[in-house]
Amino acid sequence: MRTDQPVPHRPEGPARAPEIVGSDPAGFPWSVFHDRHPLLFQQLRDALPYPPDALRRLAEFEAEAVHGVIGPLEPSAHDRADWDLWSRPYLGLPWTEPPFLWAEVYFYRRLLSATGYFGPGPMRGVDPFAPLKEAELLGPAVDQELAALDRLAGLDQAELSCALLLSSLWGNRADLSFEISADRADGPPAQESAPGALLVDDRAAVLSHLRDRPPGRVCLIADNAARELLPDLVLLDHLLGSGLAASATLYVKPQPCYVSDATVADTLAALRRLRDAPGAAGRTGARLWRAVGSGRLAVSTHAFFCAPFPFRDMPDDLRAELASATLTLTKGDLNYRRLVEDRHWPATTPFAAVTAAFPGPVAALRTVKSDVVVGLDPATAAALESHPGWRTSGTRAVLQFRP
To answer: In whole numbers, what is the pLDDT of the chain averaged over residues?
Structure first.
């Protein structure tokens, strides 16, 4: 990874709004650190039989993360040099004072250390979130969703393309970290009234972009594993099979990050789940399995996806990979925050302006679960302001494209 401070790539775009931080007790980031994270610690202790030293580290880190100040990584950490540099402005501060994006990424890196993921003991390499992801992947809701693929057989190619883009978009609701707080009695409602749930719908522009040029490589930067990753894989299978893409690259995290973010192991589990399903889902899984073997579908990762920076600061090797793609799809809330930067932009700020530094055509498929959002028309933005909590309830979404 990089060992220098990130330098923004040009073009700069609009004047940068203030970064979102967690110091407002009435704000969403504050609730993440004071409500969601204590529940997460208990879920982790319930999910796996941790040995005494791991339980001790988890308790110590919980006290720090909820009530204390930010401390450094352990001296033996393999990435200590990078994090010493990245943490320098924030060590000794309360967790709610740094930029929210930075603090969340560092929280999950510290959480892995507490569970022993990088250590020499028996928990080395054990994904602390695996039981949660596995339970979701094997649950009956997934059986129903996979069976629904059989009902798409009558759609023409254009209708099927639109349907699968929407399926991938709304699959982003399957977010275990969001559900930790959403399932509480005081969590967000399951549904809200008007205005409509899909605030921006650039599906036609995305598909026109793919149809109007020779098939190339489509990249998808994944978000969550299990229920969300399945429709992402189905979408990639469709793009390959319909000739809208000649090849595809699925980017996932190099290590567990956040509660349900997809790793290579999660991708393999999802491919097995598809291949072993009956009907259209099983046929899709078999095609994807062969696509991996032939090289038409690549599963890739990069250390940057677990670094606390927006996409404008990605290293040159990853920038070159994405610059060569016909289209990059970014999935989910975290990738959206990294794409547009986690800042207090006015909601009407043009999406194209704040994504100008991304190296190539990009589309964001995102269920809105945190404060930042851009690219809304003035009427929609004004109407939403009468719905408190619309930015964090997970009931609305955007599908935005910048050619």
So the answer is: 91
